[in-house]
Fold this protein.
Amino acid sequence: MHRDNEEVAMNKPQRLERQTALQNVDYNLGICGWLLVLLSLILTVITLPVSIWMCTKIVKEYERAIIFRLGRILRGGAKGPGLFFILPCTDSFINVDMRTITFDIPPQEVLTKDSVTVSVDGVVYYRVQNAILAVANITNADAATRLLAQTTLRNVLGTKSLAEILSDREEIAHSMQSSLDDATDDWGIKVERVEIKDVKLPTQLQRAMAAEAEASREARAKVIAAEGEMKASRALKEASLVIAESPSALQLRYLQTLNTIAAEKNSTIIFPLPLDILQGFLKG
């Protein structure tokens, strides 16, 4: 990881030089190029005011226009938003959307570190940060970012176990966001956010995990019940010691029990039978 950070740091100056070179293109069209530009300008002036409708272009607030003059990017970078002018025959332009774009990563079958096959999908938020790089460095920035997101998702999840995938979604999303952002920097793309949407497990694995969870809950319930029985037996032992010290306490407890039964079940009649009588019969 440290080595990767050093490589990224070493590549940053090269990226900056490349971006600067694209933005400050040498505007040397040559003699033939300047003649064509001059002829286009003369044609525009001659055909006024009709040609003004062909030369005037408008880009919206969220768009930028990259102008190509005889195949070269026009100096000054992207144009817009608002009104700008081009020369007919020699100039062409491409509109680039600068808004944040969202796309879903299709479900990917991933083999985890502990050899479990899961299906994971996600969502990526990105925007074009540098319109010139997005046009000049790659054919289709949107399609490339989508494919790279799918590959990055599989690569990142392949190094995680099932438990880590289920519990560390934020860390996985952050790792994917960093990897995508570094890879798309040369394309003028800024990956703002990555989220893991759903992790689908095989049906057999779901049943096994459910059985394991149920068994674990039953084991905890038995332990809790055993602890309750132990505490209850200790309390009964202490109560018996108190009653043994004071025989009248047993009579009071008997009266309390009769009071409780009389309050709940009025039709029940209880005749107390002293235990001393039973002991006499047993001795005989």
Residues 1-10 have pLDDT under 50 and may be disordered. Residues 98-200 form a domain with the Tetrahydropterin Synthase; Chain A fold (CATH 3.30.479.30). The chain has ten helices and eight strands.
